[in-house]
Amino acid sequence: RQPRAWHARLQRCACAEAGAEAAGGVADGGVLGTRSFTPARSWAEDDADVAVRVSAAAQALLEAAPPGAEAAAADEALLLWYLRDRKGDTDAAVKKLCRALEWRATAPEWTSVGDEAVAREDATGKVALLDGTRDALGRPVLLVRVSRHVVAERDIDASKALSARAIEAAVDACDEQAGVEQFLGVFDMRGFRASGDKSNADFAFVKFMVKLLFDYFPRRVGRVLLVGAPLGFGPVWAVVRPWLGSYGELVRFVKPHEIRQYFSTDEDVPEELSDMMR
């Protein structure tokens, strides 16, 4: 499967110097190629020098020269997104965008993991975008079944690739014309094992996910629900929580029946989540 959401633009930038064939088949009409990004309700809305900041970011990016710098520097929407994330701090925005471009150009999940390996991870059902589902705020819903991610059985690079593609799909499903730029992440924690042959406590993978959401998909997850977490998850959470920084404020521990409050009506709750509530 090919990556297909707003980071398709990052991939095109990162691969531009290697020719169109290196872009993995991503068409020019990718999500960022057709979508207009409205400035966040923050610095950009009241800042008369947005164009100046975008121009400065473009120049700094060219000087830093990450893979695909020329294409990215010409992409005002991409520059604005990272400026929004860094509250208008040009240096911080460029550094973060450089990391994303380097990732797109060099990370195994984009350069060496085959479709078959990703398909095997996908077949576990550990992650799924719930097609057509929207929460009460209109956000698409990404479901992660944590008990199906078994450390001893997973292919770490394929798991990373699957997760990146799943998040891209969730971002792609956002209706930005309606002001929806984020998705809801629902983690089914039931059956979580902290140790043993079937342990789900994958610290290496969690570190990757934190970096994925902070550096490569900044401000794209709006809320994370940890549903039905058992007592055994407590020590794991104590380790993970400091890694999240301010993103930890997005996390809510909820009981299965409390999922309902995140949807407008009973009919809006998809079958996958209704089954958890029973």
Task: Describe what you observe in this structure.
The chain is of the alpha/beta class. Strand 2, helix 10 and strand 3 form a beta-alpha-beta unit. Helix 4 crosses helix 6 and helix 6 packs across helix 7. The radius of gyration is 19 Å and the shape is globular. 39% of the residues are buried.
The shape is: globular
Number of strands: 5
Counting helices, strands and paired strands, the structural category is alpha/beta
| Helix percent band | 40-55%
Order of helices and strands: HHHHHHHHHEEHEHEHEH
Strand percentage, roughly?
5-15%
Give the end-to-end Cα distance, rounded to a whole number of Å: 34 Å
List descriptors:
13 helices, 5 strands, disordered N terminus, five-stranded mixed β-sheet, alpha/beta, 278 residues, 45% helix
Secondary structure layout plus pairing:
Elements: H1 8-15, H2 31-34, H3 43-46, H4 50-64, H5 69-73, H6 76-85, H7 90-106, H8 108-111, H9 115-122, E1 127-134, E2 140-145, H10 156-172, E3 183-188, H11 203-216, E4 221-227, H12 234-244, E5 251-254, H13 271-277
Parallel strand pairs: 2-3, 3-4, 4-5
Antiparallel strand pairs: 1-2
Helix pairs in contact: 1-7, 4-6, 4-7, 6-7, 9-10, 10-11
Please summarize what this structure is:
Helix content is 45%, strand content 11%. It is α/β, with parallel strands linked by helices and 278 residues long.
